[in-house]
Design goal:
213 residues; four-stranded mixed sheet; 4 strands; Glutathione S-transferase Yfyf (Class Pi), Chain A, domain 2
C-alpha cells in the first residue's frame, strides 16, 4: 500500500495512527499541501478531491477521506479493532470521532485558514483566534461526551479506538496554535495515554520523513 499524505495534516495523521496500531506496512508518499503540491496534476489525476490522505492499495485501488479509510482498514484487518463490538459502543466511538472530523476540523483546516488570510484579508492573530475558538468549543463538547461514559484509559475503553485516532492529531494541531486545553481532564488523559504507545509516537508529525525542522 501507499499512503499519500502530509506530515502536518491531521486527517493523514489519523490514518497513520490506524495503520501503526494494526501493524500494517505501507509506503509513505509525501504531498506538501502547504506548498500546493496537492493541486498539481501528478496528484489530482489520482485524487479527484485533491485532498490528503489518499490510500493506494496494492491493486491500484485508491481510497480517500480519512474516516472511510480507517473503517476500511478495520474491516479488512479486524484486530486490533478500532470500532468496538456492539452497535451502541460503535455509535459512541463514531460520535466522538465526528466531533473532531465533522465539527472541528472542517472549519479549521489549512485551506480554510488560507482563505481567511488571502481572500478575506483576516489578520494573522485574528485567524489564530478563530482557530483556537472553534477547537476549544469542539473539545468542550468532546469532554462532555466523555463525562457521560464510564471512566476509561482511552476515549472509549481500555484500548484505542477510532476516536483516539481522531483526538490525538487535533490536540497536536491545537498545540501549534496555543489552544487552551485546561478543564478537559478526560480528554487530555486519553491523549496522554495514547502518546505513551509506540503506534502513536511512530505516527506523529515529527517522525514523518517529510517533517520540517
Amino acid at each position: 500500500m501507499k499512503l499519500h499524505n502530509y506530515f502536518r495534516s491531521s486527517a493523514s495523521f489519523r490514518v497513520r495512527i490506524a495503520l501503526a496500531l494494526k501493524g500494517m506496512a505501507y509506503d509513505y508518499v509525501p504531498v506538501h499541501i502547504a506548498r500546493g503540491d496537492h493541486k498539481l496534476p501528478a496528484f489530482t489525476d489520482m485524487a479527484v478531491e485533491g485532498l490528503v490522505p489518499l490510500l493506494e492499495l496494492d491493486d491500484g485501488t485508491r481510497l480517500t477521506q480519512s474516516m472511510a479509510i480507517i473503517e476500511y482498514l478495520d474491516e479488512v484487518q479486524p484486530a486490533p479493532a478500532l470500532l468496538p463490538g456492539g452497535a451502541l459502543a460503535r455509535a459512541r466511538v463514531r460520535a466522538l470521532s465526528q466531533i473532531v472530523s465533522c465539527e472541528i476540523h472542517p472549519i479549521n483546516n489549512l485551506r480554510v485558514l488560507k482563505y481567511l488570510v488571502r481572500e478575506l484579508k483576516v489578520e494573522e492573530e485574528a485567524k489564530n483566534t478563530w482557530y483556537r475558538h472553534w477547537v476549544r468549543i469542539g473539545l468542550e463538547a468532546f469532554e462532555r461526551q466523555l463525562a457521560q461514559q464510564p471512566a476509561s484509559t482511552y476515549c472509549c475503553g481500555e484500548t484505542p479506538t477510532m476516536a483516539d485516532c481522531c483526538l490525538v492529531p487535533q490536540i497536536f494541531n491545537g498545540q501549534r496554535f496555543n489552544t487552551d486545553f485546561s478543564g478537559l481532564p478526560r480528554t487530555m488523559a486519553a491523549f496522554e495515554a495514547c502518546m505513551a504507545l509506540p503506534a502513536f509516537q511512530q505516527a506523529q508529525p515529527s517522525a514523518c520523513p517529510d517533517a520540517e525542522a
